[in-house]
Design brief:
CATH class: Alpha Beta
Structural class: alpha/beta
Distance between the termini: 36 Å
Strand order of the largest sheet: 4-6-5-7
Order of helices and strands: EHEHEHEHEHEHHEH
Helix content: 40-55%
Number of strands: 7
Number of domains: 1
Largest sheet: 4 strands, mixed
Number of helices: 8
Radius of gyration: 16 Å
CATH superfamily: Spore Coat Polysaccharide Biosynthesis Protein SpsA, Chain A
């Protein structure tokens, strides 16, 4: 769970963790009580001083010791109770990477600009890779060896996009499963879709990732 100032959200998120699952909260420079809250609720807390979503996710995967590793935001927009449905597809061998396709619980949960941007990016991926994608999933499951084997380089917002691109390049089966997408807790705001600056940063990271991926493919051919 990449985490940046999510003290208000963590109690709900960690309380929803299915039995047998272990939470690794990767603190990415929080200035609130996130670290103390996570530790008090039994999570393993790992520090990642280098800023960026991808930095935090990579640190968490590297720190994990289990065969199966799930990635999920710590902001309470996603329900950890949905994870077993994704894990089951990996265990059965029906998928190599399983991504959660967000289903908003209300009209204002997912800002229109973020939804439109995600749809456009998903369309580009679908056309470019031949793998039908609807969402750049903030909830993903795969074996730890798969995550590390992909060699994802981005350490910012482009991390999940590069994950999908490299998984399809490797011929892995990428499957989407519908998951609940909830409103954030009162008094909190998304670092990406919650501001124009955050959205611009994400758009820039996505564009950079797409260009780098295209150049890599051209060079390989």
């Amino acid at each position: 769970m990449p985490c940046l100032n999510e003290a208000r959200a963590l109690p709900w998120v960690l309380s929803r963790l299915p039995e047998g699952y272990r939470a690794i909260v990767v603190d990415n420079g929080s200035t609130d009580a996130s670290v103390a809250v996570a530790a008090a609720l039994g999570a393993v807390v790992v520090e990642e001083p280098r800023p960026g979503y991808g930095s935090a996710v990579h640190r968490g995967i590297s720190s994990a010791t289990a065969d199966l590793v799930a990635i999920i935001d710590a902001d309470a927009t996603l329900d950890p109770a949905d994870l077993p449905a994704l894990v089951a597809l990996i265990v059965s061998g029906d998928a190599d990477v399983v991504c959660g396709r967000r289903r908003p619980t209300g009209p204002r949960v997912w800002p229109w600009h973020a939804r439109v941007g995600t749809s456009a990016l998903a369309a580009v991926i679908s056309v470019g890779t031949g793998t039908r994608v609807h969402d750049i999933a903030p909830m993903r499951v795969a074996r730890r060896s798969v995550w590390l084997g992909l060699g994802v380089l981005d350490r910012r917002c482009g991390y999940p996009l590069e994950t999908i691109l490299k998984a399809t390049d490797a011929g892995l089966d990428v499957v989407e499963v519908p998951v609940t997408y909830r409103a954030r807790p009162a008094g909190t705001r998304s670092k990406i879709s919650g501001s124009a600056r955050g959205t611009c940063i994400a758009a820039t990271d996505f564009a950079t990732t797409l260009v780098r991926h295209r150049r890599t493919r051209v060079g390989a051919s």
